Amino acid sequence: MAQTAKTRPGTMRLFDALQYRLPLAGLVSLLHRVSGAVLFVLLPFAIWMFDTSVTSEISFGSFASAFVAGLGFVPPWAVKLAALALIWAYLQHFIAGLRHLWMDATHSVSNDFGRQSALFTLSSSALLTALLGAKLFGLY
Amino acid sequence: MTNNHGSKRLVVGAHYGLRDWLSQRVTALLMALFTLVVLLQLLLPGELGYDRWAGIFAPQWMKVLTFVVILSLGYHAWVGVRDILMDYIKPVGARLLLQVLAIAWLAGCTGWAVQVLWRL
């Protein structure tokens, strides 16, 4: 016991954490936190969009023009980029959340299911983000 | 008697954290339902302008659902942010400050969103 106590590595630092292999399920877990934090930070932007888009026809016009002419000193590409961040974070958090609920409800806790569903979560959210992002930036 | 305070408090046992865990899932289900309701109406055919978008939030049941979702979002985000702060911010003073700021942030956002909904 005494020997073990002596050789304990101490508090884990970010550098130590980065030395470990991160499985796909772990990546989804990490991104669930990251996307949640992004949504938390962008909450005022989301409410601003809700506010201006539903309040009146005039405010809807200023909502739409923010994506064309910018918003105050913020250029339009930055508004679009913030919207894209919101889209990715929402999709990632939503799909990963459904995965959580599914695993809670069905007790699907096998290694294989964790990997497969993580792969599905990452790829479907990336694909939908790319589709909506291309639309947002006027690629089609 | 269970010891639930001080340095020798019981930190494991039945129902510890169950309320937060369960409320995060219940609020998640409500928000998922809201997302599907909005998404399905957006995917209906026809041009998407102000009238159709505002029309989605016109019925009374949708206003009630949106109100419930706004409150759910605030609580859900609080549980999540609290988890993140508990895991990564170790100094007690800094954690307390950030938790207070997070509560103020979420309360402010919730109030603003309710205010928007109220005048529709």
Description:
The complex is a heterodimer of chains A (140) and B (120). With 140 residues, chain A is an all-alpha fold. The longest helix of chain A is centred in the middle third of the chain and has 31 residues, at 76-106. Helix content of chain A is 77%, strand content 0%. Chain A starts with a helix and ends with a helix. Chain A is elongated. The mean pLDDT of chain A is 92. Chain A contains 7 helices and no strands. The termini of chain B are far apart. Chain B is 73% helix and 0% strand. With 120 residues, chain B is mainly alpha-helical. Chain B contains 4 helices and no strands. The A-B interface holds A 33, 36-37, 39-40, 43-44, 47, 50-51, 53-55, 57, 60, 94, 97-98, 100-101, 104 and B 25, 28-29, 32, 35, 50, 53-54, 57, 77, 80-81, 84, 102, 105-106, 109, 112-113, 116, 119-120.
Which structural traits does this protein have?
heterodimer, A: 140 residues, mainly alpha, 7 helices, B: 120 residues, 0% strand, elongated
Binned strand content of chain B: under 5%
Q: Spans of chain A of 5+ residues with little confidence (pLDDT < 50)? A: none
* Overall spatial form of chain B: elongated
Beta-strand content bin of chain A = under 5%
N-to-C SSE string of chain B, H for helix and E for strand: HHHH
Distance between the termini of chain A: 66 Å
What is the 3D form of chain A? elongated
* Low-confidence region ranges of chain B: none
Biggest beta-sheet profile of chain B: none
Counting DSSP E segments of at least 2 residues, the number of strands of chain B comes to 0
Order of helices and strands of chain A: HHHHHHH
Instruction: Say how many strands of chain A there are.
Output: 0
Biggest sheet character of chain A: none
**Relative helix content of chain A:** over 70%
Q: SS-based structural class of chain B?
A: mainly alpha
Counted by DSSP, the helix tally of chain B is 4
